Amino acid sequence: MAHELTMENGKASMMYYGDTPWHQLGTRLHKPATSEEAIVEAGLDWEVVKKPVYVKLDKRFQVKDTFAMVRKDKWQNNDCDILGVVGKNYTPLQNKDAFKFFDSIVGDKKAIYHTAGSLSGGKIIWILAKLPGYIRVINNDISEKYLLISNSHDGSSMVQIKFTPIRVVCMNTLTVALNKGESMKVKHCKDVKDKLTQASELLGIVNEKYDTIERSFKNMVKVQLNEKRLNEYIKTVFPDPVDELQYATVDNNREMVRDLFENGMGNNLPGVQGTLWACYNAVTELIDYKKSKQNNDQRTKSIWFGNGYNVKQKAFDVANDKMKIWLN
User: Fold this and answer.
1) pLDDT of residue 296
2) In angstroms, what is the C-alpha Rg of the chain?
3) What would the pLDDT profile of 16-72 be if each residue is shown by its tens digit?
4) Nearest by Cα to 106 from 143, 128, 126, 131
């Protein structure tokens, strides 16, 4: 399989506005969507329900406090797959409520949804929404401001909200958290909808948080990297592995970052060339475009939710740590 997008009736459960995705799948829109449009075009206009789990020995027994998550519209159909097994306290967040979260931030009926879809048969859904304004790092090097929300229906993760600037010159996805780990998480508990509403209230200071991201980006431009600093940054992001069999992979990653630092998209712009900003973007370009050839079947999942996200987050954290020393 060349992707992990959910396929239904021969169609991928995904909508997008803009460039055609790497997998050539999904419904292309000619303008950003409202939440009502996006949920339909992405094939996400369905709900999930909890169903009791039974075992059959000499007779049929219900498994205590154990439930299967299934799509409500497919229940008792032949194609009804179990999305996951959860406990009694697990409360699902329906797709429509995830979209309402964004509407509460930017306003209902606003056409700001650029990408939405489903992975792994409906186990994970995501929504990428564009916020007003942009970050001008230096001259014409601009990053637009997005938020990404992901929700699992299999009990594997909490509702997650991430700040996701996208650098226009190269379309690198600069997914960053403002603290160690994720930007924000909400558990699937009884009051998950209320907690998401509270999260929405917290995100009323989203511009303030994006101001913090903007300061980090602009400070990266101020730091010129000599050979010593370049090696120090790259080796901290890609440290020596414990397993000797991984040395070749790590060495390859380091060399590719070095090349992209010099020749990556947008890294030869005036004011950008030779800076920490260029090296940080070299890492993100490696993850978004170069390594995907090795791992096409999990690209989207990796970039936003998996190892790719973790590497980019580490690159951002290391840059901020180094700047505390190099800017003094």
Assistant:
1) 44
2) 21
3) 787 655 455 678 888 888 888 888 888 999 999 999 998 887 788 888 989 999 999
4) 131
Say how far apart CA 97 and CA 195 lie, in whole Å: 12
Dist. CA 159–CA 164, nearest whole Å: 16
Tokens of 229: 């600093």
Find the Cα–Cα–Cα–Cα dihedral 224, 229, 235, 238, rounded to 10°. -10
**pLDDT value for 239:** 94
- Please state, in angstroms and rounded to a whole number, the distance separating the CA atoms of residues 30 and 110: 15
69-74 long-range CB contacts below 8 Å, 24 or more apart? 69/153, 69/154, 69/155, 71/46, 71/47, 71/122, 72/46, 72/47, 72/48, 73/46, 73/47, 74/46
Looking at residue 2, the DSSP 8-state letter turns out to be -
For 9-140, list the strands marked E by DSSP: 11-12, 14-17, 27-29, 48-56, 60-71, 84-87, 113-119, 124-138
Q: How far apart are CA 285 and CA 6, in angstroms?
A: 26
Q: What is the 3-state secondary structure (H, E, C) of 92-125?
A: CCCHHHHHHHHHHHHCCCCCCEEEEEEEHHHCEE
Nearest to 160 by CA among 311, 42, 305: 305
DSSP string, 147-202: EEEEEESSSSS-EEEEE--EETTTTEE--B-SSSS-SEEE--STTHHHHHHHHHHH
In the chain, the N- to C-terminal Cα span, in Å, equals 50
Tokens 């094939």 -> residue: 43
pTM of the entire structure?
A: 0.80
Give Cβ neighbours of residue 67 (< 8 Å, ≥ 6 apart).
50, 51, 52, 53, 85, 86, 87, 88, 90
Give the pLDDT of residue 197.
63
Mean pLDDT of the chain: 82
| The two structure tokens encoding residue 253 | 């990653």
Listed as ranges, residues in the chain with pLDDT below 70 are 1-3, 19-25, 104-111, 175-206, 290-306
